[in-house]
Structures are given as structure tokens and as C-alpha cells.
Amino acid sequence: MGLLGRSSAPAPTGTRTNFETDIVLGERYRDKQTGFEGVATCVSFFQHACERVMLESYDAAKQDVKEYVFDAPRLVHVETGKQAETTKTGGPRPAAGPPRMATR
Predict the structure, then answer these.
(1) Which end of the chain, N or C, is less packed with Cβ atoms under 10 Å?
(2) What is the rounded distance in angstroms from the CA atom of residue 56 to the CA atom of residue 50?
(3) Domains of the chain (ranges plus CATH)?
(4) Residue 85's CB: how many other CB atoms inside 10 A?
């Protein structure tokens, strides 16, 4: 038995999923919706491959570290201007194309 009474046996063959990201930890990104800019410190993947990225930034005026988590496709690399991409939708089906953007 593993932690909390769960079995520690390996998962059955064919049930593992590999995840890839174009987010580089330690690089600066900007969220397109809020304008928040910070350093990528964590990338996490949820059950159906929703890719989330934590950005951290130092607020010198308040002498405080701010950290927020964003969906990866909302982020733009500060130096290159390249938008983060994903082939997963956060649901059980692959993305049909580029992320949909609201038009003004």
C-alpha cells in the first residue's frame, strides 16, 4: 500500500501521458489579458492536459513578491514576442486550431 492506503503499483501499460511545453522556466512572460509580467517558475498539467504557468514578479514599492497562475496560451515571451502554444485543449480532445481571440 502507498500513501493514504493507495496501491503503489505502476499504472497499466498504455495509460501514461507525456506532456511537452514551450515555456522555459526562468524566462520572462507577459499575460495578454492582464498585462502582468513575470518570470516563469512553475508549469503544471492537469488531468486533461490543461497547461498552467506560474509567473512571479517583485513589487519594489511594496517589497513583495507577486505570483499568479495563467493558462499557457495567454502568455507571450517578453524577449521574442512568441506566444506560448499548446496542442491540448484542457479537455479530452486535441485543439482544433489556434486559440480563438475576441475581436474588437
Answers:
(1) C
(2) 20
(3) 19-88 (2.30.30)
(4) 14
pTM for this predicted structure: 0.67
- pLDDT surpasses 60 at 100: no
What letter would DSSP give residue 46? Answer: -
pLDDT tens digits along 39-84:
999 999 887 668 899 999 998 888 999 999 999 999 999 999 999 8
Contact 21, 85 (CB under 8 A): no
CB atoms within 10 A of CB 71: 16
Residues 53 and 40 sit within 8 Å (Cβ to Cβ): yes
Task: Show Cβ contacts of residue 28 under 8 Å, excluding neighbours closer than 6 positions.
Answer: 37, 38, 39, 40, 77, 78, 79
How many Å separate Cα 26 from the centre of its chain?
13
